[in-house]
Amino acid sequence: MFKKVCASWLLVAACVAGVPAQAAAVVPPPVTAKAWLLLDATSGQEIASFNPDTRIEPASLTKVMTAYLVFQALRDGRLSAQQQVTVSTRAWKVAPGSSKMFLEPGKRVSINDLLYGLLVQSGNDAAIALAEATSGSVEAFVQRMNEQAGQMGLHGTRFASPHGLPDPATYSTARDLSVLAQRLVSDFPDLYKTYDSVRTFTYNNISQSNRNRLLWLDPSVDGLKTGHTDSAGYCLIASAERPDGQMRRRLISVVLGTGSDKLRTQDSQVLLNWGFQSFKTVKLYAKGEAMDTPQVWKGELDAVRIGLARDAYVTVPRASEVKPVVTQQQPLIAPIAAQAEVGSLQVLVDGQPAGQWPVVALDAVPQAGIMVRTWDTVRLWWRQAMG
Predict the structure, then answer these.
(1) 3-state class (DSSP) for residue 41
(2) For residue 149, what pLDDT band results from cuts at 50, 70 and 90?
(3) 60 is known as an active-site residue
(4) Confidence check: pLDDT of 66 > 50
(5) Where do the DSSP E strands lie in 132-205?
(6) pLDDT grade, residue 96 (50/70/90)?
(7) What pLDDT does 373 receive?
(8) 169-207: per-residue pLDDT in tens?
(9) Which of 188, 260, 311, 343 is the Cys-Cys partner for 359 at CB 3.0 to 4.6 Å?
């Protein structure tokens, strides 16, 4: 059966820029997964995908959101890594035969060990224990999971548990999961590095290996999470960071519904290698970097520095030519507030529009006194009259 794939950065960029894609697409490699997506986490740009918005069962990929909320609690001081919690009967009695870290009811266990149990051993009992420790009850935690999904714009996602065991009320998409994974890495880089790249963890004298086989096969892979049930198939979110010229790039692959552990590993590795080898990420401007200092009229300053409110990157095929084009509002008349939009940055890739960012004033320019304003009014009139 023919698979319709959104295969080109250019198709994505054209949707953003509102222009037709005219250059040849970079064709992705064959992938067996029912749905998949490759994201450049550095630029935030989707490189390629197949069925990215199809509703799927996320299985243990659900635990990425569980980890995100626990990381939030650690950051905000509501939990501490060494804090001891008592294992509830509910956590201990999680579905027989499912993944566990083998908690025992009534025993004390640290948040630190529970996070390793969640992310390395994929323990469903750890997910319940962390939910109760974070929010007081599983139900309150699940409500928070869905609130966070809404805040992230994950409109194709719903959670019914912190572990992801089969439930019609638990579902997501490849696109939503890529956004969630990117947020976990970018919002909590230190915690991510602490827990997600660990290959083996021992608890209660039982050692279990991380099911993400890429941690052994590819030294650039440092996470993220596997998932599997009979109904979901084998799933994997993989995150890898590699040097590329003077910068480091991170790619995130989401592979859903493959037929085996081997296939999810192969599909993920193929996508990551293709993304790194076939594409480059170009940094256009850094946040706060002055692009220009255009003239200001009727202000206490004669000019203002302009730039971007955030770093601007674009991901393009390796052979592509990238050209940034800055358009400024004219004339600039004070008062101008800091961060006020004063123009736009458009990027042309091989001559075609492929993205746009607002250009802002990096400094405030107060309005000048009456004499300067009057004189500049005359000068502007004369300028316009002279064409």
Answers:
(1) coil
(2) very high
(3) yes
(4) yes
(5) 200-203
(6) confident
(7) 83
(8) 999 999 999 999 999 999 999 999 999 999 999 999 999
(9) 343
- Closest by Cα among 332, 327, 329 to 357: 327
Which one of the listed residues 122, 135, 239, 253 is annotated catalytic? 122
- 223 Rama class: left (phi>0) / alpha (psi -120 to 50) / beta: left
Contact 239, 70 (CB under 8 A): no
Of residues 8, 43, 49, 60, which has the active-site annotation? Answer: 60
The pLDDT of 117-125, averaged and rounded, is: 97
CA distance linking residue 58 with residue 233, whole number of Å? 9
Q: Which pLDDT score is estimated for 165?
A: 95
Number of H helices, E strands in the chain: 11, 17
Q: What share of the chain is helix, strand, coil (3-state, %, to 5)?
A: 30, 30, 35
Interatomic CA distance for residues 237 and 217, integer angstroms: 15
8 A C-beta contact, residue 98 and residue 88? no
Distance CA 289, CA 96 (A): 56
Q: Is 122 a catalytic residue?
A: yes
Please give the Cα distance from 56 to 25 (Å, whole number): 27
Cα angle 236, 237, 242; round to 5:
125
Catalytic residue check, 172: no
Q: Give the β-pairing of 322-328 and 296-297.
A: unpaired
